[in-house]
Amino acid sequence: METKQTGVLAVLLASMMWAIEPVFAKLSYENSDFLQTSAVRAIVVVLTALLYIFLRGKGNFRVTRKEVYPLAYIGLVGTVFADLIYFFALTSVPVVNAVLIGHMQPVFIILIAFFILKEDRLTKYDYLGILLMIISGLLVTTKTAENLAMLRFGTFGDLLVLAATAAWATTAIAMRKYLRNLDAGIITFYRFLVAAIVFVIYLTIISAIHIDNIYQILVGIVVGAGTILYYEGLKRIKAAQVSALELSAPFFAAVLALLILGEQVTLMQISGIFLLTAGVYFMSRKENAEGVAERGK
User: Fold this and answer.
1) From CA 297, how far away is CA 161, in angstroms rounded?
2) pTM of the full structure
3) Torsion over CA of 50, 55, 61 and 66, rounded to 10 degrees?
4) Which end of the chain has fewer CB atoms within 10 angstroms, the N or the C?
5) Residues 6+ apart with CB under 8 A from 2
């Protein structure tokens, strides 16, 4: 019971981190840009992961040759590409849109596993869950009945977040397939180290590497802590329980965006959040029987 309680607490705290991340990112944009913030964030996450590893006495950074390629893929696709376009999208997309679309990742994981990997068979619950989550995304991005009637399906920024979500899904599959035995701190360290190296090289070339505000550091600490907490939670509770607990993130995000950024949430967006919850419930019925699905972000 103690292990389960620890897992539940870890995932709830991770969900709070996912909700806080875009708020801090938007605050950092007041005197910086998405590229600078992404670079500082990656460096701070690496330092946070290092601190976690050493505090736990898990100082073995050696990985096998088979693990190097998945780690490089996750770092490049999940952090350099997906995180970067996500942060770019945040310059124009409301926080609640970004967080909720990001939580549509199970749709892509199931579809990739079915159509590309040929590993899973889709059930009636999968189809129903996917349908509900697609409707949820439409309600959140269109915001109002008028926009929906006029077929205004969100913005280019919403589309970028969707692309980032699809990319995160591919890294989640890579983690599940090749990196299950690695420590949470080690995965986090190497994933963001790849991104940090890429960003530092690029910003050094253009002579633009610097820290503009405290929020850039805070977003790195939040992401580092959230990633580690999420992986630790996955070790202790079922994937279906993780998916359900993660759905607290859109609620946290909506409240924080309203209180700190003054972003308003419409009735249709609130309905979309509840539909997302229902969609994950139906899709997780399969996960209960088949094991663990991991978050790519």
Assistant:
1) 12
2) 0.82
3) -90
4) N
5) none
Q: Tell me, what's the pLDDT at 118?
A: 61
Q: Provide the residue range defining the domain that includes 145.
A: 2-290
Confidence at residue 76, expressed as pLDDT on a 0 to 100 scale: 95
What sign for the dihedral angle of Cα 237, 252, 269, 100?
A: negative
12-252-182-83 Cα dihedral, nearest 10 degrees: 180
**Nearest to residue 173, comparing CAs of 86, 122, 111?**
111
Dihedral over Cα of 243, 245, 246, 249: its sign: positive
Query: How is residue 211 written in tokens?
Result: 């820290």
278 within domain boundaries: yes
Question: How confident is the model at residue 171, as a pLDDT?
Answer: 87
DSSP H or E run through 84: helix 84-89
- Return the percentage of the chain with pLDDT > 90, whole number: 30
Judged against a pLDDT cut of 70, whether residue 184 lies above it is answered with yes
Question: Is residue 296 assigned to a domain?
Answer: no
**How far is residue 112's CA from residue 29's CA, in Å, rounded to a whole number?**
34
Q: Give me the pLDDT at residue 293, please.
A: 43
Which residue has tokens 């992961």?
49
Chain-centroid distance, C-alpha 81: 13
Q: What's the length of the chain? A: 297
Residue 20, in any domain of the structure: yes
Range with the lowest mean pLDDT among 45-54, 95-104, 209-218? 95-104
Residue 135 pLDDT: 82
Contacts of 132 (CB under 8 A, 6+ apart): 275, 276, 278, 279, 282
Tally the domains of the chain. 1
User: Does the pLDDT of residue 212 top 80, yes or no?
Assistant: yes
With 0-12 CB in 10 A as exposed, 13-18 as middle and 19+ as buried, what is 31? exposed
